[in-house]
Amino acid sequence: MVGVDPAWQGTGLGRALTLAGLVHLRDAGLPWVHLYVDGDNEAAVRLYESLGFSMWDTDVMYAPSDPRS
Predict the structure, then answer these.
(1) What is the signed CA dihedral for 38, 35, 16, 43, rounded to 10 degrees?
(2) Would you give the distance in Å from CA 39 to the centre of its chain?
(3) What are φ and ψ of residue 54, in 5° steps?
(4) Phi/psi of residue 7, each to 5°?
(5) Most distant CA atoms of the chain, gap in Å
(6) Please, how many CA atoms are within 13 Å of residue 67, restricted to the half-sphere of its CB?
(7) Which of 2-6, 10-14, 33-37, 63-67 has the lowest mean pLDDT?
(8) Around Cβ 11, how many Cβ atoms within 10 Å?
(9) Does residue 6 sit in helix, strand or coil?
């Protein structure tokens, strides 16, 4: 899990941490990596896309209840 305080966003910290994690996983012999990020976390989505990842699937974990029910 990677988390960056909003005050540190845009400094390259998230990129550095993500790349360090990816290098560790590669060196451990993992042939591929699957990332999870909340879709509304636009900064993280942009970061992962800039690293060559693309959207595979989307899930809705929580949604407002239907007021008619």
Answers:
(1) -20
(2) 9
(3) -135, 160
(4) -65, -20
(5) 52
(6) 0
(7) 63-67
(8) 11
(9) helix
| Residue 44: other Cβ atoms inside 10 A | 20
Question: Where do we find the tokens 């407002």?
Answer: 64
CB atoms within 10 A of CB 4: 19
CA-to-CA distance for 48 and 15, rounded, in angstroms? 9
DSSP states of 29-66: T-S-------TT-HHHHHHHHHTT--------S--PPP
Q: What is the pLDDT of residues 11-46, one digit of tens each?
A: 999 999 999 999 999 999 999 998 888 878 888 899
pLDDT range class, residue 69, cuts 50, 70, 90: low
Cα→Cα distances 48→42, 63, 65, 66, Å: 10, 24, 31, 33
